[in-house]
Every structure is written in structure tokens, then in C-alpha cells.
Fold:
Amino acid sequence: MDKQTFRQSLLEKGIEVSEQQMEQFSIYYHTLVEWNEKMNLTSITDEEEVYLKHFYDSISAAFYFDFQKVTTLCDVGAGAGFPSLPIKIIFPHLEVTIVDSLNKRITFLEHLANQLKLDKVTFYHDRAEIFGRNKQHREQYDVVSARAVARMSVLSELCLPLTKVGGTFLAMKGAKFKEEERESKKAVQILGGEWKDVFSFQLPEEDSMRYMAIIDKMKSTPKAYPRKPGTPNKNPIV
Ligand SMILES: C[S@@+](CC[C@H](N)C(=O)[O-])C[C@H]1O[C@@H](n2cnc3c(N)ncnc32)[C@H](O)[C@@H]1O
Structure:
């Protein structure tokens, strides 16, 4: 997807991207590929692919969820900043928190945020299992997002403890989602969530299906969750 198609396709979805925001995406792209030579941030480096599979795909969350109505967003396992930083560029009012267990990615994100002149962004090097037990973060966020981090039952245990009651957990998933959805019903319910919607879509120029699951946080997460690092993955709630 070239830059003009990126801008035009978002406009068709009701999202206007200013010159200044276009410049931020350009800086994001160049910083990503420059740092990717020193550390493993992404396997996608072709400019048109980055605009489609990282920038446009991240922003596609806003086709199904109104970010204007919320203030705080926590992105679990954001890696090189996806999906939260493209969303932050489009919705600058958001207060974005990223937690990732890989410190070198946090170093990259701090540098990137400076380059992009982003305010109200905070990065933590931590495991989501520990972060979700920390009183300063537990059940504090209007929205918790994650893309390509873990299968749905595991992801629910990482994300729902951080979501405030009345808030929303947004899971951006790939082609295997339908299977994951079935085996995560119990986890979502135990952790205090309730399925609201699942949207399926394809990126322009792409065949494979993408899914966006929207889960409402209805009740407080029981104190036992999240369990210690690694346990959600080894022994998922099923
Ligand atoms: C495959 S990458 C996806 C990155 C990004 N969300 C994207 O869509 O491009 C998964 C990221 O999740 C992080 N991660 C995995 N398990 C985690 C955990 N338990 N707590 C925090 N971060 C985690 C990894 O360090 C990695 O950066």
C-alpha cells in the first residue's frame, strides 16, 4: 500500500490523516527499518508492506471501536509499537502505556516516541503477568489491546486483569481465531469479561482473514489471576 493509498483508504473509513501525521508515519517507518538492522523488531521492512501490515492494520481497530470516547490505552506485548502507536498518532489525546517483556524493544520505543514527539506515552519493561498484579496498573485502563502476542485464552489472562471494570479488551487476531475463540470462552468469563462483538475483515490487497474481538470487562478479575509468568501459557484456562 503506497502512502497515498494509505491516506485515501483511511479517509474512506472516515479517518482523516493530516500532513503532520503523514510525516510522523514516515519518521516511524524510517526509524523502524534503521533500528531493525541492529535488533529484531519486524520481519516486514518493505515500505508499502509496513504501511499496510503494520500501520493500516493497527489503525483498523478504529473501524470497529471509537477511540475518541476513551482516554487510557494499555498495549500488551506491543513489540515495535503495534497496534498502539499508529492509533496514538491518529488519536493524539490518548494516554498510551506499553508493557513488553523485551527490554531492547522498550529502548527502541523510547527513542521512537522522541522522534515522533509523542506526549502521554509510557513504556514498561515487564511481564504482563507481573504488571497485571501491580496495583498501579491493575484494572486501571479504559482499553487494553494486543496484537499477535498469544492465543486467546492466554491473552485474556494477560489483558483482562489490566482492563478497568466497564472498560474494553481489544484482541487483534489472525486466521486461527475461530478455533481460539471456542477454547477461550471459559477464560474470558472467569476473568470477568463478556464477549461483545467479533468483526472479521481482510486488509486491502490481502486474502487472509483478520479478526477483531471486542470483550467488555463486566466484573473484577479474581485475585488469583494473572498467575505467575509462564503459567498462563503452560497451563491455559480451558
Ligand atoms: C510477535 S510480537 C508482536 C508485537 C506487536 N504486538 C505486533 O503486532 O507487531 C510479541 C511481543 O509480545 C511480547 N510478549 C510476549 N509475552 C509477553 C508477556 N507475557 N508480557 C509482556 N510482553 C510479552 C514479546 O516481547 C514481543 O515483543
Observations:
- The chain is about 40% helix and 20% strand.
- The mean pLDDT is 97.
- Residues 76-80, 82, 99-102, 105, 127-129, 147-149, 158 surround S-adenosylmethionine (CB under 6 Å).
